[in-house]
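Quick one, T. Sequence first:
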Amino acid sequence: MENALKRQFDVYPSVRFGEFKLRFTAHYHRRDERYMLTKDVKVWGVENHQHFYVLEPEVLTKDCFYRFQAELDSHIAEQMNHSEEHMSSVFIGVILTNEPVPTPLMRRVRKAKKLSFLKWGLHGWAERYVVILSLREKELYSSKKARPFVEPIAQLLKN
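Structure tokens:
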């Protein structure tokens, strides 16, 4: 998964993330601008960001899931880009496990999404999703809104 993301993302292995030691993080930044006649006359510019935080806990519990989600939320609040050209940021927490995923946790992960508007939407928005990737079952558990972002990871499982 890490090698597949390296083509388009900046990947950083073994990162400390609050109380967690992540397997790796991956960050993608895109900036688009439109000009009128020359580059000196910029009409508009937008920035889009996508971030993956991959955790492989020894034991996946409900408590671990909630703590990782809370850590991700606090990280988003600290790291958000408040520039006028910021359009969107997507933060995806991926939990890797070799254990079977308990049914209550499957239900909880389908609701693990959050949308925050920056300055009432004038400076864009931030989305947060938490997904669980079961390597034993070769299954990806996520909300419907997270599917487009994590579909490439699901394709890696099937190969």
